[in-house]
Write a structure and sequence with these properties.
2 domains, 64% helix, three-stranded mixed sheet, Arp2/3 complex 21 kDa subunit ARPC3, elongated, 19 helices, Hypothetical protein af1432, mainly alpha, single chain, 460 residues
């Protein structure tokens, strides 16, 4: 079943990939026939190309969490559409992408051709939209801002959607999750770029090509600020994840537990239709759910036999302790609930607050089941790991009492479809090593391996 699904995914990926290439070739052919420039402006085009190449170097590049690259050249691309028409803009962006791929990033041909095709479609369609809207040549009174605004949204949307689509097919993650995670801010940033693009156009028209030199230091400053913010956020979250995984490093019975719980939770949450934001909360909540055990001594955590009532009472304090630690994280305050309540039960016999029924959030209920499932399917000091089928039987046995009924039903459905199984130790070790490189984000749900790790580009 898994092999059949992978085959379908690979077929869909190839169909999407070649569909983008064919569409770009057809669009370029149309532009070459009907949109060729009336006069040649070699000096201006060459000057623009040099600035475009400079804007697309690593100096002004942001690495998105999904490993896509966000480039600084959207403002230049939009101004080319207005000044020279869509055909010239498509050709210039294609040349820039080709040079960037061959000489600067050593991109594989597959990635490079896709990036060129994607940018050609975004440029071509956006340019045709601009020319179809009234006032597109009204540079003396500012009315050209209206078609420019619409064109900017079209360009940003097409660019982001094409990248999101190929990433979704390649990583087997829903489109809306990738869009929310990496590109949903693109439209907002695009609106903010509108006056900046207008200034580039007007300066070029009234002063000459040399004014483009003003673009480089400004865009470097803007991107440096954005990049610093993103790096600070990722480093903060990664540092917490390092702490969580380091707690398990010396204990063979819980090594990798937090990572597996986070990925099981994301799989279940995705199947239950949770929003991308809530899936992100589940991911980090899973990594951090046992952070409170930092205050519990190893003689209790690693005790091979049954805990005494006093020892269990001490261990039961870890969700509340963890919640107080996680409260200090400002980026994802919703994880506090998951950390504090991942041991609550529908029948009210959980801890630390004795919540029951609907008092327990869906995220906490998912975390409860994932924590129990991984505990059952992992070797522990007091017993050997249970087979997956036996662990599933335990979930069903305690459905509605210890575990949320709807979440159990989702796990059953996923397991029957072959989409819920134990994450292998080899995958866990690989990801934990990456997590513990402080400053790098944790890898999301494990994708089906491909021959090449894709790196996609989106302009902004």
């Amino acid at each position: 079943m898994n092999q059949q699904r992978r085959n379908r995914n690979n077929t869909a990926f190839r169909a999407y990939y070649f569909g983008v290439l064919v569409t770009s070739i057809a669009l370029l052919s149309y532009l070459a026939i009907y949109q060729k420039p009336v006069r040649t402006e070699w000096l201006a085009w060459g000057y623009y190309l040099v600035i475009l190449l400079a804007a697309d170097t690593k100096l002004t590049e942001i690495q998105a969490r999904s490993r896509s690259k966000v480039l600084a050249s959207r403002a230049l691309a939009m101004s080319m559409l207005v000044l020279f028409g869509p055909f010239v803009a498509v050709v210039m962006d294609a040349i820039s992408s080709l040079v960037r791929g061959v000489f600067l990033q050593h991109t594989t041909p597959r990635k490079m051709f896709f990036n060129m095709a994607m940018l050609a479609i975004a440029n071509g369609v956006a340019g045709l939209v601009y020319q179809a809207i009234p006032f597109h040549a009204s540079f003396s009174n500012g009315l050209f801002l209206l078609p420019l605004f619409a064109t900017l949204l079209v360009y940003a949307t097409i660019n982001s959607l094409i990248v999101t689509g190929i990433m979704s097919l390649d990583l087997h993650i829903p489109v809306r999750e990738i869009w929310h995670r990496d590109f949903s801010w693109g439209a907002v940033v695009g609106v903010l770029e509108l006056p900046f693009i207008a200034i580039i156009i007007l300066l070029f028209l009234h002063t000459g090509p040399w004014t483009l030199m003003l673009y480089l230091p400004i865009i470097w400053v803007v991107f440096a600020i954005i990049r610093a913010h993103e790096q600070q956020k990722e480093a903060h979250m990664a540092s917490i994840a390092v702490l969580a995984t380091t707690l398990e490093a010396d204990e063979p019975y819980t090594h990798g537990h937090s990572y597996r719980v986070s990925q099981y939770a994301v799989t279940i949450g995705r199947a239950m239709g949770m929003s991308p934001r809530n899936l992100e909360v589940l991911e980090y909540g899973g990594l951090l759910h046992d952070i409170g055990k930092i205050a519990i001594t190893n003689d209790i955590i690693c005790k091979p036999g049954r805990l005494t009532d006093e020892e269990f009472a001490t261990l039961a304090e870890h969700p509340a302790i963890g919640a107080r630690i996680v409260e200090q994280i400002k980026f994802l305050p919703e994880t506090v609930d998951l950390v504090r309540h991942h041991h609550e039960r529908p029948d009210g016999k959980g801890y630390p607050d004795g919540l029951k029924g609907d008092e327990i959030t869906l995220g906490s209920s998912i975390m409860n089941i994932c924590d129990a499932f991984d505990a059952m399917t992992s070797d522990r000091s007091y017993r050997k790991a249970l087979p997956v089928e036996m662990a599933i039987e335990e979930l069903v046995k305690h459905r509605g009492t210890q575990f949320n009924a709807a979440v159990v039903d989702t796990v059953l459905a996923l397991h029957r479809r072959g989409e819920f199984d134990i994450i292998p130790d080899s995958a866990v070790e690989k990801v934990i090593r990456q997590i513990q490189r402080v400053g790098e984000p944790p890898v999301r749900a494990i994708p089906t391996p491909t021959k090449e790790d894709p790196v996609h580009e989106v302009q902004r």
